[in-house]
Structures are given as C-alpha cells and as structure tokens.
From TrEMBL:
<protein>
    <submittedName>
        <fullName>Acyl-CoA carboxylase subunit beta</fullName>
    </submittedName>
</protein>
<dbReference type="InterPro" id="IPR011763">
    <property type="entry name" value="COA_CT_C"/>
</dbReference>
<dbReference type="InterPro" id="IPR034733">
    <property type="entry name" value="AcCoA_carboxyl_beta"/>
</dbReference>
<dbReference type="GO" id="GO:0016874">
    <property type="term" value="F:ligase activity"/>
</dbReference>
<dbReference type="InterPro" id="IPR011762">
    <property type="entry name" value="COA_CT_N"/>
</dbReference>
<feature type="domain" description="CoA carboxyltransferase C-terminal">
    <location>
        <begin position="261"/>
        <end position="523"/>
    </location>
</feature>
<dbReference type="InterPro" id="IPR029045">
    <property type="entry name" value="ClpP/crotonase-like_dom_sf"/>
</dbReference>
<dbReference type="Pfam" id="PF01039">
    <property type="entry name" value="Carboxyl_trans"/>
</dbReference>
<dbReference type="InterPro" id="IPR045190">
    <property type="entry name" value="MCCB/AccD1-like"/>
</dbReference>
<feature type="domain" description="CoA carboxyltransferase N-terminal">
    <location>
        <begin position="8"/>
        <end position="259"/>
    </location>
</feature>
Length: 523
C-alpha cells in the first residue's frame, strides 16, 4: 500500500468518526428516550420519506464541529428524491436539546435555503423543535428572521414548501408550519403555538393546556393551520409523499439517457493526493476517474483547451453522468498571468455555450515577485476573478488539496457562491500556508523591532512562531472549515463522481443560461 493511500485512509477513518458523532445526535440515552416515545429519528424519517433505493445527499453534516454545540448543529439537511422530485429536506434532531436551534443551526438552514433557491427546489421540513437555544438567542434572534423570509419567498417563486410537524414547533418555530404552503400535523404529537401554557399564564393569566392551545387536532378542526391531520408519523410521511406527487413538478432540462463509467478506477483517487501538499500531482488523473469514459464521449474523455499555454492550470471539456461540463483544475499549484488569462477566456466560452463549470482546487495562489508584479499579475488575476464573479452558468467546486490566498477566490471558493462546494480530507484552505504565514509575521516583527531601534529576539520568537503555525494549520483543515459551514461537506474522494452527478441533476431544475456581460477587463 502506497504512503499516499495509507495517509488518505487514515484521514477517512477520522472523517467517519466525526460523521458518527453527527449521526449519534444527543447520544444513546436521548435516542432511547425518543424511541421510547414511539418516535422516529430524523434520518429514519428521511429514509421513509425519500424514494426507495434513491440516494440522499446530506449537506454540512459537520456543521458546528469544534464549537460548543453537538456536531451536526441539531438539524439534518440534504437533497433527496420524493416521488421522483428532487427536494431540499430539513429535519430537526429532537435528541439534541429538544431540537432547539443554535447559531450553527441557523447558518446550516440558511445554506440549505440558498441551495433550494439557486436550484429551484421544493422544500420539505420535518419539524420537531423547541425553538431557539435561549442562552445564545443574541446570535439567533436577529438573523433568524431570514428563515421565515426565505420560506415565504420560496412560495412566491412557485417553489413549494411542505412542513411535516412531528412534535413541538413553538415560539418563532411556529411560523415554519404557519408560512409553509402545505402543513401536516401528527395527531397527539404535534404542538404548534407562539406561547406555551406557562408563557400564556405569565402574560395573560389564562389557564390552558397543550392540546387546546396548539394541538394537532385543534389546528385541523378549529384554527385551520393544519391542512392534514396524520394518525402517526408513518401516516404523516405518506401524506407528505402524496403532496409532492401532486405538485406537477417539471425539470427545466431532460436528464441524459446514457453515459459510461470512468475508464480509470475511482479507487485510484486515494493514491493521487500526496500527504505533503507541496508535491504536485496531475489533475488529469482525477478527471479520468471522475468523468465519463471514452465509450460515451466519442473516444475522448477530456478535450483539453489550450494545453500548451498556462500549463499550471488545466482547462477543458468533458461529460459527467452524460452531462457536459467545463473543467478548470490546478496542476502545479501556482497561478501565473498566462493561467489567469486562459481561465478568463475559458469561462467566457462556457457562458457562450451554457455549460456548467467544475473547479478542482490545488493552488497556493497567484505568483508574487518583482517580475510577476511588473508583468501584470494583479490585473490578470483580477480579470480571472471578474470572469468567474459574473459568470452565470452553474459552478461546482471541489477542494482536493491546497486552496490558499486569492487562488481560492480565482478558483471559485465559498465567497463566490458556487452552487455546491465539497472538500476532500486532504484539503487545506487559508490566506496562505501555515509556515509562510508564520514566517511573514516573523519578518514583520523583526522589521518593527529594527524601526524602533530595539533588538529582535529571534530565538524567543520561535515559540510564538510555532504557536501561530499550529493555529493556522488547525484552522485550515477540512473539519474546521466544514464546521464553519464553509463547504457543503467533507467527502470521500471515491464518492466525488456520484456526488457531482447528483448536483448536476439538481441544477437541471433551472435553465442553464450563460452571460455575455462581464465587468471591465483591464488590458
């Protein structure tokens, strides 16, 4: 077994352990208590909701990693197929503090809403939440209103919203079923009210109970908030599936009818990425293991564009699950002026032909130095970023290795709103590499001491330098970045083709239309 494969398998084992924490929710005792009440867990509800045998693409499973909150942010989000319709699904995890929303819950749902909007997806919410996590309300209350805004705007865009209420949906959470197009409540389980009996007693002096104040049957018979009254959780899921089946949903683009598996085994992806990201690797080997094989592409897997020019950036055309894509992939890490100009032209061509773009990151950023500055690296990098910023075809990004500095921007990092962005366990992303950043700070500290006429304690600074380097290293790792919801998930490289295939299918819910309008390109 190669060193690269061994290192990657170790990272994947760590990733599996972190995903297991998210699946564990509030822990064994909480799960047993929940099951003891005759209730299903969020992923069990999702499994019954989606079509049998279909895939569920879970998003941001590590949200909240490294924070004070349980990994997963007490909510499950992802894309699943219901009655043949791709839907955004959100499901509160009631085993984590009763499904209460914390700051990371809000960020994770914001991201799910953004994906639903950009790709024109219906949304199905599986609701069981005690509302906001009160100790952190200052981080939830003000921005949290966007959740309700997004629900109503989705309805206005004719992107249906469905709420299946399995338990508590109280305080601000009551507006999720209240603002959804369709609301299903489970008899003797769902409780939807702005204020529970204790709050009503304090506010008005009125004595009331859960059922008369916000029970499912009351809302079905009296208030009219419930459109459907379900006998139990399985019945609620059955009704939810029937609602989606009646949406008369049609995708903008017909799915391809045939494709070929890659000619190279995706298992080989574990061998490609060096454990030391300073070592280059050929991204064409990734493309051969992710894109359709020759039998589906007229004998050519990858039609490379400008192969002899700007060789540290590979660009070209391919198919993935039968769908055409343009690819920009870093080869040797550094982006020079030629690479930036090549990328700019390629992005324009993709927009001209309404072709989605896939960015495969492994870059240390744009080249620095006197000759490169005088040669126009800033204006050429700005040209590339201009083209990518204003491109209107869907963008997908996969961070395979390094994604440092403005190279992250030029290769369509999170700030540039790719439709989807995933990272491999080998990925690192920061303003620059840890050693470089610590070294820069050492030079700055030395120059500062000299400007004040003071001696610089180089030996003493080594401890500070090591601490800075370790901190930057930790904060550039994929688990940390995924915990911040800076990607849509850390994935096994071998799953890349399948995940990108799902994403390209989701994109087809909206027309793919390129632009011919870009900002001013500085000559």
């Amino acid at each position: 077994m190669s060193d690269n494969r061994t290192a990657m398998l170790e990272k994947l084992a760590d990733l599996d352990a972190e995903h297991a924490k998210a699946v564990a929710g509030g822990g064994e005792r909480s799960i047993a208590r929940h099951h003891g009440r005759g209730k299903l867990l969020p992923r069990e509800r999702i499994e019954l909701l989606v079509d049998e045998g279909s895939a569920f693409l879970e998003l941001s499973p590590l949200a909240g990693w490294g924070s004070d909150f349980t990994v997963g942010a007490s909510v499950v989000t992802g894309i699943g197929v219901i009655e043949g319709v791709e839907c955004m699904i959100t499901a509160n995890d009631p085993t984590v503090k009763g499904g209460a929303s914390n700051p990371w819950t809000v960020k994770k749902i914001f991201r799910a809403s953004q994906i639903a909007e950009e790709n024109g997806l219906p949304t199905v919410s599986l609701v069981e939440s005690g509302g906001a996590d009160l100790p952190t309300q200052k981080e939830i209350f003000i921005p949290g209103g966007k959740l309700f805004r997004d629900i109503t705007r989705a309805s206005a865009r004719k992107e249906p919203t469905v709420a299946l209420v399995f338990g508590n949906s109280t305080a601000g959470g009551a507006y999720v079923p209240g603002m959804s197009d369709y609301t299903v409540m489970v008899k003797e389980q769902a409780k939807v009210f702005l204020g529970g009996p204790p709050l009503v007693k304090m506010a008005t002096g009125e004595e009331s109970d859960d059922e008369s104040l916000g029970g499912a049957e009351m809302h079905a018979r009296t208030s009219g908030l419930a459109d459907y009254l379900a006998e139990d959780e399985h019945d609620a899921i059955r009704i939810g599936r029937r609602i989606v089946a009646r949406l008369n949903w049609r995708k903008a683009t017909a799915a391809p009818t045939s494709w070929a598996e890659p000619d190279e085994d995706p298992e080989g992806l574990l061998e490609l990425i060096p454990s030391d990201l300073k070592e280059p690797f050929d991204p064409r080997e990734v493309i051969r293991r992710v894109c359709d094989g020759v039998s589906a592409t007229n004998g050519v897997v990858f039609d490379e564009f400008k192969p002899l020019y700007g060789t540290s950036l590979v660009t070209g055309w391919a198919r993935l699950h039968g769908r055409p894509i343009g690819i920009l992939a870093n080869a040797q890490g550094v982006l020079f002026s030629a690479e930036a100009q090549k990328a700019t032209q390629f992005v324009q061509l993709a927009n001209q032909t309404d072709t989605p773009l896939l960015f495969l990151h492994n870059t240390t950023g744009y080249m620095v130095g006197k000759d490169y500055e005088q040669g126009g690296i800033i204006k050429h990098g700005a040209m590339m970023i201009n083209a990518i910023s204003n491109s209107t075809v869907p963008h997908l990004s996969v961070i395979m290795g390094a994604s440092y500095g403005a190279g992250n921007y030029g290769m369509n990092g999170r700030a540039f709103d790719p439709r989807f962005l995933f990272t491999w366990p080998s990925a690192k992303s920061a303003v620059m590499g840890p050693a470089q950043l610590a070294g820069v700070l050492e030079i700055v500290a030395q120059q500062s001491a000299e400007s004040k006429g003071q001696p610089f304690d180089a030996e003493g600074f080594q401890g500070v330098k090591a601490m800075i380097e370790a901190s930057v290293e930790e904060q550039s790792l994929p688990h940390f970045l995924s915990g911040m919801v800076y990607d849509d998930g850390v994935i096994d490289p071998r799953d890349t083709r399948t995940i990108l295939g799902i994403c390209l299918s989701v994109i087809e819910n909206q027309p793919v239309v390129g632009t011919d309008r870009f900002g001013v390109f500085r000559p």
